[in-house]
């Protein structure tokens, strides 16, 4: 189980800064994380809808938390939190900061649904969610009209792309 490996390595050294988002109830995991496990109640599938559902919950939880930075990494990553915190401390969290590895060497081309039968082409950069990305509180708050309280799912549906692409799309819009 990847959660076991994570709990025995970097997460155990950074419990106050780390939440585990999962798609099912796990009392043992909840206990081991001191309640920092969040059941998203999203599908366990790896579909764009399920991924966007999970990201929507992550985003809302971050906004609720009052923390300065939102960093998303997949569960197959090792995070050197000390180095990450040092990097993030070099940037003002109140400004618009989006840090991550671009997924492509050019902006992605997508189609945005404007209405039932009208679409338009859109181009934007996005950081790959698998490798991880971080967003400052200032930028996250500006994303709110497109991302908070279920809006993330609607926004993802407009471009019919997964969660990390939707983050880039929203950031390009703000």
TrEMBL record:
Subcellular location: Endomembrane system; Membrane
Membrane topology: Single-pass membrane protein; Single-pass type II membrane protein
Major subcellular site: membrane
One GO location term (cellular component): membrane
Keyword Repressor listed: no
GO molecular function list: glycosyltransferase activity
Pfam families in UniProt: Fringe
Keyword Membrane: yes
Domain Fringe-like glycosyltransferase residues, every copy: 4-173
Keywords: Glycosyltransferase, Membrane, Signal-anchor, Transferase, Transmembrane, Transmembrane helix
Domain of life: Eukaryota
Family: Belongs to the glycosyltransferase 31 family.
Cited PANTHER family: FRINGE-RELATED
Name by which UniProt lists this protein: Beta-1,3-N-acetylglucosaminyltransferase lunatic fringe
């Amino acid at each position: 189980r990847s959660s076991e490996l994570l709990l025995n390595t970097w997460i155990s050294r950074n419990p106050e800064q780390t939440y585990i988002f999962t798609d099912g109830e796990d009392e043992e995991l909840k206990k081991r994380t001191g309640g920092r496990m969040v059941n998203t109640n999203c599908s366990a599938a790896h579909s764009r809808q399920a991924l966007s559902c999970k990201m929507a919950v992550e985003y809302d939880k971050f906004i609720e938390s009052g923390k300065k930075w939102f960093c998303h990494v997949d569960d197959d990553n090792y995070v050197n939190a000390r180095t990450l915190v040092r990097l993030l401390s070099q940037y003002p969290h109140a400004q618009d900061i989006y840090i991550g590895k671009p997924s492509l060497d050019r902006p992605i081309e997508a189609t945005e649904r404007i209405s039932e039968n009208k679409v338009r082409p859109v181009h934007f950069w996005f950081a790959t969610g698998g490798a991880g990305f971080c967003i400052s509180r200032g930028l996250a708050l500006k994303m709110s009209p497109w991302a908070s309280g279920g809006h993330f799912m609607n926004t993802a549906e407009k471009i019919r792309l997964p969660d990390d692409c939707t983050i880039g799309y929203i950031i390009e819009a703000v």
